[in-house]
Amino acid sequence: MSWWQAxxxxxxxxxxxxxxxxxxxxxxAVEALSALVTALGEAVAKAAGDLEAxxxxxxRLAALRADDAAAPARMRQLEGVLDEARxxxxxxxxxxxxxxxxxxxxxxxVHGVLPDDLYRVVVAAIPAPVYFDAGGQTExxxxxxLAPVDVIAAWAFVSGIVRTxxxxxxxxxxxxSMRRRPGADGDPGGEEPRLLRASRGHLAVRxxxxxxxxxxxxxxxxxxxxxxxxxxxxxxxxxxLLQRRGSEAIAGRTTIAARPNMAVTFLALDGTLEYALDATxxxxxxxxxxxxxxGSHRRAQPSGGTLP
Amino acid sequence: xxRLQKIARALGPSVRRPDALERVEDSVAALxxxxxxxxxxxxxxxGRLARARRAIEDESVRAEADAADRAAIAAVPRARxxxxxxxxxxxxxxxxxxxxxxxxxAVERPFSRWLGVTxxxxxxxxxxGLWDHLLEAEAASGDVLRGAxxxxxxxxxxxxxxxxxxxxxxxxxxxxxxxxxARVDAGAHDVIAIPRFTYDFPGGxxxxxxxxxxxxxxxxxxxxxxxxxxxFLLPAPVRGFQRRLLSLAGLTDxxxxxxxxxxxxxxxxxxxESDGRIGGGRPLxxxxxxxxxxxxxxxxxxxxxRLYVSRRDAPSGRAWVSNEDDVEALFRSRGFxxxxxxxxxxxxxxxxxxxxxxxxxxxxAGLSDIVFSNAGIxxxxxLTDSLMRWYAKPGRGxxxxxxxxxxxxxxxxxxxxxxxxxxxxxxxxxxVCLSFLGGDRLPVDxxxxxxxxxxxxxxx
Lengths: 308, 460
Hints:
The complex is a heterodimer of chains A (308) and B (460).
Chain A: H1 3-8, H2 18-68, H3 71-81, H4 84-97, E1 100-101, E2 107-111, H5 116-124, E3 139-141, H6 149-173, H7 175-180, E4 196-198, E5 202-206, E6 211-212, E7 223-229, E8 238-245, E9 250-257, E10 262-267, E11 271-277, E12 285-294
Antiparallel strand pairs in A: 1-2, 2-10, 3-5, 4-12, 5-12, 6-11, 7-10, 7-12, 8-9, 8-11
Helix pairs in contact in A: 3-6, 4-6
Chain B: H1 3-11, H2 18-73, E1 86-89, H3 92-95, E2 99-103, E3 107-110, E4 115-120, H4 125-139, E5 144-147, E6 150-162, E7 168-172, H5 177-185, E8 189-194, H6 196-199, H7 203-206, H8 209-226, E9 231-235, H9 240-248, E10 256-259, E11 264-274, H10 284-295, E12 305-309, H11 324-333, E13 337-339, H12 346-355, E14 356-362, E15 378-384, H13 385-392, H14 421-428, E16 432-438, H15 444-458
Parallel strand pairs in B: 1-7, 4-16, 8-9, 8-11, 9-10, 12-13, 12-14, 14-15, 15-16
Antiparallel strand pairs in B: 2-6, 3-5, 6-7, 6-11
């Protein structure tokens, strides 16, 4: 018999009556105490969680303040490299000369996607780990918000070039693939090419086995681009496994070696891309990923301040 | 062994040993007190952690906004600003020194709860159709009036001028002490403030009292909140009524500079970048600040006065009503004081509007003084066929409402640029707004019946 069972037995014997009442009262008190101890444990756990979150946020703010001092010098460096016309011309030409491969899913591997100096700036502008939420998330949506000014500015420039120069050049390469693709209802007629627009995307930390888009759910996006952000002078060994989704299993696969300054765009409706990293990749590699979805090309208007 | 287990063990034979029972009771009581005290301490700690977390989250929000602002202003190759009419010249590193202040709070005001009776007595089917279209489009655009805070660019050491393309050109200077000394010697001003209406506002509206009060003066207030002693560059010429309104905002004459756009050096330049309009309409956040700082309505005591603002003194072609005498007589018969704005000094206008509990008038500049009136008053806006046609004239910003029907994408605030101009201002001021639309010769009988309903509703 457990101690609780022994304790829980009603008092009996010649000490019934007043003693029995007292024992029952004690029993109730101990039960209440047990509940209070449980509540105490929960409160301590919550406090610990709050403290951890507080420490993360404080760490980000402290890092921001420390980074701020170097901002003017870094902005001066950026000005020498961030040339809109040069970058747009370069990415457009790089996307245009990249061969479109049909298997296992239509995809484009663009090498030297950015001017070399711009790529180095982009890699240097990867936010420090403290700016990624350590609470399990490994993605930072663009535009960046809480990050050093020069980092925000660099990524604003790059995502602007991507949307205005890279995306249109790449999207048009997939028109034929879209036409050849069976329609949603199974008709062999295929889909008419839709006006595709690149989203701002996100920066991510990817580990071995991570997939883009996530394996389980069918992508809502038509195309996806992945750009590994690896040290051009000391790149880790990493492969990108491009796979065609079958009805039950993978229906085809190809391996693309992840190299500095390259971008892989693939038909996300039918495929996924999995990261295969070895130990040289350490705790993962950073990537810039952005999907394409049907949309209009309306220019965003500045909000507020427009007088009648 | 767990303390509770010890207690339980002890309780086993306790029924035969009363003293042991008492010891156990004492132990349990003591333990309960300890645990309760520990629980209170942990709860207090959790509370403090939650407060610290909220404080740091607020700080994070501010830091994010600041970082985003600085990155936008220092963007390569050019600053991304909230006004397309400002050109900020200078390298990215230099532009890092520019700060963006947010003045005022975001506004979210329920709209329809401030709408009173709306009556259309026009006999013109085109006008009736326009009116129905306007109300339907407005209703389809949501029920919340929104406005964002003002933003002010705080620019150190710059020269400001207007460009041939009508932009506000701001050239950032070298920050070195030698350069500063040279500028001071050359007569650089300390702090210069530039309202948005100085560089981006329809010239025709600058001479209009109503637009000056509800659209322009709020810019001045927002800039004053950053630096009360700044000198303000205003479009030349600065008129008498503008100076009187500026004095309400606490500006002295020496702070007002009529400016023709010629280059001017400043140690510090404050530029009203955005007045927070979302989709158009009025600058709602600024309007509320205007009420707080300048209007300061009389508290508690309900107004007793009924005011009718006559258009008798309106310029030719802008009277909108052809039987003003009859309309004045009607309102007089219902106990309204007739007010002719051109004959009433500003201070007197403010006093009368503060004392009012019903204000009526043809939609026009005269009604703009409702910003000085208490919340809860009734505002009666009269509209006529010719006024509707004026608003609907194609090719003008004020005629957008007459185009495609409103959709979820059309912001409700945009209808502030329509015959609902004063309905929107009243809603922001939390005043009940009633509308009567009739022919240019307003139907006195129908208007009288309408007025009786209004007075009955408004009179406690």
